[in-house]
Fold these 4 entries.
Entry 1:
Amino acid sequence: MKLELLGVSKSFGERVALADATLDETGFRTLAVIGPSGGGKTTLLRLLAGLDVPDSGKIVINGEELPKDEERLHLYRKSIGTVFQAYNLFPHLTALENILLPLTKVQRLAEAAARETAFSLLERFGLLPQAGSRPAELSGGEQQRVAIVRAIAIRPRFLLFDEPTSALDPEMTAEVLELIEELRSEGRDLIIVTHNIGFAGKVADRCIFMAQNRLVETGSLPDIFREPGTPLLSAFLRKVLKY
Amino acid sequence: MPYKGAKPVTPFEIAFSWGIVLFLLAAVFTFAFSNIEYGWHWNAIAGYRDKFLKGWVMTLALSGASLVMSLLIGFGTALARRSAILPLRYAAALYVEIMRGTPLLVQIMLFFYVIADAFGVENRYLVGTLILSLFSGAYVSEMIRSGIESISSSQLDSCRAVGLSRIQTYRHVIVPQMMRQILPPLSGQFASIIKDSSLLSVIAVNEFTLSAQEINSYTYSTLESYIPLALGYLILTLPISLFSRSLERRFRYET
């Protein structure tokens, strides 16, 4: 996978959320975005997901520039998978219906084909018993796993995760991370915003460190962990690796 | 709502409690009516049964049509109030405030004798239904608006992320959740419409209340005319309220 950022900036009113981000990463499978809260990670992910549009600069993914008009952005979003921190699922639909809705209404699959896809994925990830349950009846970990299944059911070009486990307790975190790990070993392209440094180190081949609404450092994970090039990163690593 | 773990209420307890309530109610009314020493003439109104029934059916028809129309008006107004087009948004806000802030009686008079007259609409049943729908639509739009706004922005993000269009988002995500939420207040609104429709008697729409008024003036039997009127309205509003509660139970899910 290939990700290029050229002077990408985004502000919300007076508040600068992302300042002049430039990046050229080629040939990664899994890219981890790490850094302290409020450092611009989620802003970057929302731009990559086509949910927000940068004020200036451009984003090029796999050689294709992200559009800025809503109509073409909509087409772009249909082709990728995005999983948020929490509350991904529609509360009035069962796990199965949550997966079927984008398949039948957005991807225009026939009902039978959509059901087949949904059931085979639910079975593969051990979620078959939960197929008929509403989100409120599922644990947080199960909800996230269903959300991930919903995202991959459409055969996305790549997957984006925005802190997929930060709302979960350790046990549920483990089950969600195992699933993401499995997706990686299938050879899917992933971009993951995460607080979980250990997990990032395990799955990601490339890593972006963001702080103070800037891209501070990029590199392969072992490298930047061993030899942080900036005081910001070494301070961050000291803090998170302490416990 | 009984809290979880509360002892279930036995059928006997239910029957007994209702017995007490109804007995007390009956006692109060018996005492009150015995005090006025009223000479009952139920025979006098017996011949007007058909007229009662016709009025009752007319009230039901007017209210039903108004409910459907006020839902459409309410939904349109709620969308207009969220619109990016400012004049549309302000017009919707003004409409809601005017309809909610003025008496229905004045609206009926003004609309029927001035506006409808100017536009050459003479059918008082049509005008009556229209006024009632406009009046109720203002309330319904506020219910719908709060229903729409109760849907979290993270859900709307999810809708965009999976690629639902705006219309699909409304159709598959917002409206189904909103309907569950507004059903209880909406059925209360239907009961209100049924009662409010009685005011249409002032423009001589032949509904239930006007029938009772006319029967009263033919027979001079005031209570005999108006007690069936009260019961007739209760027959409509009571099942609505029970129905809404059963729907509420069926639709309940935690968020």
Entry 2:
Amino acid sequence: MAASMTKGVLNCCRIICQNSKSSASIYKASSPIWQVPLRNSSYSSTYLEPTYRKADLDQPLDASDDRRFLPIKAAKNDEVSTSTLDPLLNKFIRQMMRKGNKQISRLVMDRTIERIKQFQLEKYHKETSEEKRDLINLEPISIIYQAVENCKPLLTIQHARRGGVMYMVPIPVKPSYALYKSIDWIIEASTGKHRTNTDNRVWDDMAREFIAAAKNDGGAIRKKQELHRLCEANRAYAHYRW
Amino acid sequence: MFSIVRPVLRRSACACRLITSSSSNNSSTEQGSGTINFNELFQKGIENPIRNPVKKGLAVCRTNQTDPSQHTIRHEGLYYRVAPEAIQRWMKEGLHPDIYPLFRAFNESCLMVRRPAIEIMECMRAADYSLPAIRYMLYGRAGSGKSSTLAHLMHFCGSQDWVITHVPWAPVLHRYSKERVPSTFKEGRIDQPADAAKWLSRLMTTNDPLLKTLNLKTHRKYIWSRREVTEEGDALTELIDFGLQRVKYAPDVMGAVIRELKLHASSGNVKVLVAIDGVNGMWEQTRYIREESRHKFFHAQELTIVQHLMEFLKNDWTGGASVCTVDEGATIKEMNDPLTSYMPRFLLGQKGFDFLDPFIPVHVPDYSDKEANSCLDYYTDRKWIQHPAGLTEAGRTEMFFLSCKNPLELYKVSRRW
């Protein structure tokens, strides 16, 4: 075990060294903002991802499956075999977490889902005509997915110095950054200090924010539009990306 | 009569009440085939997952019998609809705070008919009201439905024209009261005029049309000050109104009203229900600091309101009943202690138990199989359960496992589904 661990660490170090070299070379050409440093993994690269979902576990294992011969990582804390497990919600909970208080973060997410259902059901049960009823989306998960999708930016701003002047250069975003930024804006819009009624609970405001964002409305969507407007204003400097 | 009250045994086998077998089979296969690849999802951007509409449930989870005085053991585990007026009168306060948004969302307010409530109802029907008032004590784990049972019983008695005096949460009296003055009536006691006025106003709102039609009179003369006097033979509503106008005298008026109600109940003019939630808070230390030392606190027994309510809990009067709950949340004992218990003897302490003894303890258990299934049937009917897995048999089993069928925990688990 110890031998494999040291081997793993060495492997990682090599990767980092290679990476840092390449990043340095890129840095000279243009300053990259997407460079993410690799962290040391406690597992060697030979380790496989764990299988923890009940549906996956029920499927038969081939005679030639890698999982029969190679070591497997331990499952993470939030990787459990509940039916309600959702990758986006887990990401949201992780990003919302402050000071390692995951319990609180999870509670806020649960209560947000509760509030979304309550707000939508209130509209649904008060609506008398069947046609209008069918238009109301009652599924909280689908509303959250829609909201996050709507808040994703297409472009962002990168600063570049040319001839002693800082230019704001619009560049396309990576999908992972778009997801991060979308979630960030939703969290900020529902928890920030700019809120008019600070007596409201976080989950109340967050549920309203999700429902609004699913309809392309609300604070997070406005943030996205502001950024897009800024990119549009600086489109003349787009060629400074190279 | 007392043979009815017994610990409720959980019934093991229960008919499966879920929808139709074909629909549940369909959704289970969908669930089985759907595996999620995290990396793929994040790379291509997470898309809106498509969910198939689920067939309507056919399970029976409601009863048309909205009159609680007609409820019997046949209605066990079924939901009955409470009229908005009844909610406004008897259940405006006292239920769990999470249930009110749910009432709003469902556009109706329903309570489940449960066995402990039925047991007490049977006792109340069979009781002889020429004998001293019987005290019923609801006890059970946190979130098992003690307050809901109390609300059901208040609805039961209220629909039969009982006068109802309700204290939604007794510990409030000795935790959050802002206005406290030394009593003028008796030395060493503390008055809380605002809280007493609140109790009087609640008495008026819960029994508003009834108190006026009954036209109860006072039995003696009360002298509040040199000019303010309540004569013998004045209406009881006038006395209550006086307490609401002159808040300074509200704690003493409360005592007078309780005395009058006891006398009227004893003479058979009216029946009175005393409903107190978290009664064990009346034998606890308060959070109010004494003047002589920062480290000494007043005891709840020194509060005037508590003393008056204890007059009501004595069994020296006839023609009524009192229903109390003992709650773990109402005590300031160390709840992390593994030796804690939800039993009345532990929560009331020696003094409280001696005072209330004899009483009829009624255990409020967690949901049985039938009740838990009925609860989820109702949630499904109201479209509260949205996750497709929640409509399958396996999903239900998972929810029951996560919540231990505790009503509050089951609701908390169902938030995510």
Entry 3:
Amino acid sequence: MSRRAIAYLMLLAAGLAAPFFIYPVLVMKVLCFALFACAFNLLLGYTGLLSFGHAAFFGAAAYVAGHAIKVWGLPTELGLLAGTIAAGALGWAVGSLAIRRTGIYFAMVTLALAQMIYFFFLEASFTGGEDGLQGVPRGALLGFIDLSNDLNLYYFVLAIFVFAFWLIYRTIHSPFGQILKAIRENEPRAISLGYDVAKYKLLAFVLSAALAGLAGATKMLVFKFATLTDAHWHLSGEVVLMTILGGMGTVFGPLVGSSVIVVLQNELADKVGSLVTVIMGSIFVICVLLFRRGIVGEIIAFYKRMLGQKA
Amino acid sequence: MKRKLLNIAIAAALIPAAGNVMAQAKAVKLSDNMVKIGVLTDMSGVYSDLGGQGSVTAAQMAVEDYIAQAKPKFKIEVVYADHQNKADVGSNKVREWYDTQGVDMVTDVLNSGVAIAVAKVTQEKNRIMINTGAASTRLTNEDCTPNTVHYVYDTYALANGPGKAVTKAGGDTWFFLTADYAFGASLEKDTSDAVKANGGKVLGSVRHPLNASDFSSFLLQAQASKAKVVGLANAGGDTVNSIKAANEFGLTKSQRLVGLLTTIVDIHALGLPTTQGMMFTEGFYWNLNDETRAWSRKFFTKHKKMPSMLHAGTYSAVTTYLKAVQAAGTDDAATVMKKMRDTPVSDFFAKNGKLREDGRMVHDMYLVEVKKPAESKEPWDYYHIKAVIPGNDAYQPMALSRCPLVKK
Amino acid sequence: MTEIFGIPIQALMGQLMLGLVSGSFYAMLSLGLAVIFGMLNIINFAHGALYMMGAFLAWMGLEYLGIGYWPSLALAPLAVGVFGVVIERSMLQWLYKLDHLYGLLLTFGLALVIEGLFTNMYGVSGQPYTIPEELSGAFNLGFMFLPKYRAWVIVASLAVCFLTWFVIEKTRLGAYLRAATENPKLTQAFGINVPLMVMLTYGFGAALAGFAGVLAAPAIQVSSLMGSNLIIVVFAVVVIGGMGSILGSILTGLGLGVIEGLTKVFYPEASSTVVFIIMAIVLMIRPAGLFGKEK
């Protein structure tokens, strides 16, 4: 068994054991945001596209899944699926517009479109405006596993996370993922090699949006509500922060980054009061100036130096 | 001599009774030998002036005063957290408080989105939320729970009061500036209903997007309507900027502005020159009588600002809760809730406050008019009280309740 | 009375005027973004925060030091400009060799820090700033009642925009600047201090934002969050204009202000989204923006 496989197994074991040591709802929240950050990393880290509007997909899926389960009475699994598909479709619409520009323009276009989507959620009646869509029942998995039990739900969320993580891992290491990396490294070259760059970018965007949606829908299920903060641009900024802090373009970076941020937010809630934004902003600045590789990226670089390789 | 004997006899008869009271005080049965109160509020965002640190201070004051006066035999502790206006952060924190820290009651909980989420958690874990911060009537209607108390105000009371009173006083044509989402729409509807019921007319309304920084265009439309009254069905920064623009465009010279969710925080931020003549409803005003002044001055020495209705309400709510725990002899949610329902609230904040079945704490509200700068005698002296709206008129009648707990 | 689509023409003229006022702010802010972008290749996410700082400095000057509106109009932008220079020297300059995205991220973090600090100090309900005596009151234009202050905003911002355009397009300094934008290495070789120009450019862009902030202070409540909502709209304006030319960003800013103003009359609910819708349409037809050149 390779060393890498052992590492994965150990992580999985930690995930299985976590709810017995740490407050399970908090771990679920971390997992949801980790999935969100992983989906985002697929775009930023592996395709080189900085989207500043990913919260729109996260929030859209949360609303759609919540509405489907609460109002239409769909079973939990189908509700999550509906949310994911809706986010993917929205991702297609936003993506086809945004990939017409690159770099900084791309970031601004996604931000502006996400803001438009935010206004839609604010005004649409099914979202409940600023009160939010509340009291969504968690339901039962396959009709018989009661998800209102936190522990049952935890393993369901963990399963979703592991599945999505595996999917992202497979994507990165597939030929498709290689082409994405080629686009990131040198777009004109990828074009000259005959790849339809726009198509690949759009596909990556849709996949990333759909998985971000899955994260949003799952988070909705954990907390039983969807509110406007799920679609606000602050969250779009936060997911960027999580990815960069952890290390973009690394497999585990987003997981580490989101754990740090979520736990920090939770812990700071009763300690520093109004300085939360300042602390988040400072982490951002420090990361960009000093740790551009992020936590995981720095560790990998250190490890490689130890082995005498040049990073 | 006989008389003296009698006195002794009475005293002797009373001693056991007094002893009983003492025994009762001792016998409060608590789940963890402690009453823990959580203040969940917005410490950093858009509502932090309205609640925020001031609510924490008020809750702490309430606990200190209660300990000094009642000398309870149980320990009381206050914890607080910043929900950052995120429903997930708020409900997660409260869940953790209930699960791991033995918190018995949460208060403040402003921001309707957070409040409804917290109400659900509170019901699930069977504790109590005495909400002093959120505005939405959903807390006592669709989303009511047996564990929720809505203590200070709600959108119905804020909208209905001026709608009725201003219309009756001759302001019978209205135009609305409405924030374009559910909350603004419900403010507008509740006010319109009151206006129409009292013989007034609504000439029109304009829906503006949330956080529109420039309101001049909407105000020109309000001006063109020639309505006597312009109702601001919006909140926070939107209200502040509408008032500012109204002033600049000379609207306040010919029309009266009525805020439907305006508080002393907004008036303080804008200053009297800009806001003079505005009318709106408040749940509390510090300069009402000697009792409110005494408490508010004490609050001022700690917080350096006069209390908003949320701050005063939080103090009152915590005190009411502690008294109910003492009287009920337990911190069991259902028993304490019943005690609170049975005991009218009477303190500096609310006279004859009554907790209804749907969780609404009904108490008198005040229709206020903002003073002219010359009339203000000291800092924070901002209002003329135009009318006291009796609680039963101010709040949504039980007959209209959409709360499933209310038996009809 | 003549009417267009059921709206009296006089009311329409009034709304056009007001559109021009908000357009003036868009123009100044997008101009600042364009100038910074041209030289540093950085999208300044902190622009909204700098705008807020300008307004706050004016308020603080009046509150603590008794500095009136007119001196503030010069002093506050100057202070914001100096602050911009400090940011450029201490942080931004290390990022030029990297992907431009890092500049965006850094300034985003800075925006959070600046806004958080002001929130922490002054709360969020904001501070009132009264209109200076000389500009209170209003002009009666026949078709509308235009507050003098709003008229002043249009005049002042057009003057500043024109001045900026003139300096960059018509003076020697501007020529150096354009040369440094086009080819920094060659310009450096001609003995022009390019890093200095870069530093001053960022400072100037920041000062423009600060100036817009001071102009806005009497018109809207001075609050720590006043910039963060505006900046997204300005980003959309910049995408529509395509930061190719100075004149382009000024025209786009004014034009979109007017369009937004008209939307407020015909379909007020959409007035905050109309800019984004136009952005989507422009992206479909001319991806580089109205005045942009495809690089």
Entry 4:
Amino acid sequence: MARKRKLAQADIDMDLTPMIDVIFLLIIFFILAGRITSEISNTNITVPPTKTAEKWEKPDDWGHIKIEVWGTTQDHVGGGEPGFTIKMGLNPEWHSTGSHGDAAFNGYQKMRGELNEVFDRADKYTDPVSGIKLPKVVVELRSDGDTEYRVVQEIQQVATDTVNPYADKQGQYMKPSTKPPAQMRPFVNFQFTTRKPGD
Amino acid sequence: MAPPIDIDNDDEVKADMTPMIDVIFLLLIFFILTTKFIPDEKVIGSLLPTNKGQSSASTPIEEPQNVNILLYPFGYTRGQQPSYYDAKWHEEGGGQNATMTINGENIHINGQDLGMGGGEGSALNAQLDNIHGFINRHLTNGEKGGPRKDQDPVIIQCFSGMPWKFALAAYDAVRAYEAGVAGKIDLTPEDLQNAREVVFSPPRVRDYRQWEMGYELFEIIHTK
């Protein structure tokens, strides 16, 4: 009898410090985890679902750049100025507006300029088919599911250096590139960001 | 003289911790409830053509052996002029739902169902199953055997004004078929080089001529 009463007494005076420590750790974890997830991915983008979506880890000796894109180049039904946005790595967002002139192709031009720099810095390998030097860089293209196909397609064309986003002598844009192969800076290894249905 | 202040107050050592623990529990519950963990996004790999040298770019778009997967707005049918398609596109739009055509056979894809959500029995899964079944059937019929590299190239010809999700869904279905025939395609650049050629349609240059969008619709709808 006497022993039991003594145990009960000890319970009331138990040390709260470890519990408070653990709870503080949990709070800090949830504060940080909550913030981090919203910072990493751009919330303007909802990537489209696919069945063959895979988790992917890049080969060790390869570089990786991420291009995010959303928007449209057309103003067909409902009016409104067409426009789209490209975000590449840590650069600020590049907005393109309208359908004609420099403002409409600004995003592509900035992207091409940045890609040129990445190309020059990257390790290269020789393509077995064409003999062209290609960079050891994987481009991840994270497009919104409702982004107009043309924007995604034109980004691919600008990245593979098959069209020229700058104005030519007639003031026309997006014409086939006329550079000789040795001067091209193509990126050909692409990953399209997607998600598993149900995730 | 006033008595000296008693600094060693024993009461402070035994401060009551209950209110602090209450507050901390409230904070903990708040953060647990409000934190949303976004599931990891995944990727699909692709090797894009450059127009100099890479094998796919040398493949002309209308070669009869290509498998052409056409994607254009639902409700647009064959047998009209570019001016008709252009006017229809600018008046009605219609890019939210798609017609997919292979070898002259059509299916309808509901774009809204192809958006968010998912899981067993969902509308999204029904759309994906429909697309996968359709493409799988046509690719099975055209199967030639041999190394995947030597198969007929698959060209996804999507109308410029369509949302990207339709083109990616078609690409996904072709990849799923290839994985069924040849086993899983790793996303390494070397593996992609030996996989079947699957490309998005070659450059369609913006030229701003009259009925530009109509011409593009006309060409896609009438591709064999």
